[in-house]
């Protein structure tokens, strides 16, 4: 019969690694939101949405990412990907503000504000 005592440290280390991995996964999977608000700093309609979010404390009621697209190519590419998921014609560009709720896309300040009002 082999000596199992020499494997105990490896088993304990394996359990610790699995436990730490589970904690990290739980932390980051629960904070990542599929909802994204795409905006541009120069967009007046985006500013309307930002004002509504601020005035109504939306950030504390609903978890979503806010991504600026005019100065960030990665964010712009993600916007295009979400628009394609919603089968939006992107041949003429994509307007902001643009909100992706995880399933559907909303474009324009009034549609986005109306969405926030229902939450």
What's the SSE blueprint?
Layout: H1 8-31, E1 36-39, H2 44-55, H3 58-61, E2 65-68, H4 73-85, E3 98-100, E4 105-107, H5 109-117
Helix pairs in contact: 2-5
Provide an overview of this structure.
This protein has 119 residues and is α+β, with helices and mostly antiparallel strands. The chain contains five helices and four strands, in the order αβααβαββα. It has a four-stranded mixed sheet, with helices on both faces. Strand 3 (98-100) and strand 4 form a beta hairpin. The longest helix has 24 residues, at 8-31.
**Order of strands across the widest beta sheet?**
2-1-3-4
Tally of alpha and pi helices: 5
Cα-atom radius of gyration: 22 Å
Order of helices and strands: HEHHEHEEH
Mean pLDDT: 86
Q: Would you identify the regions where 5 or more consecutive residues have pLDDT less than 50?
A: none
Structural class label: alpha+beta
Could you say which overall geometry the principal axes of the C-alpha atoms support? elongated
Helix content: 40-55%
In terms of DSSP E residues, the strand content is: 5-15%
Say how many strands there are.
4
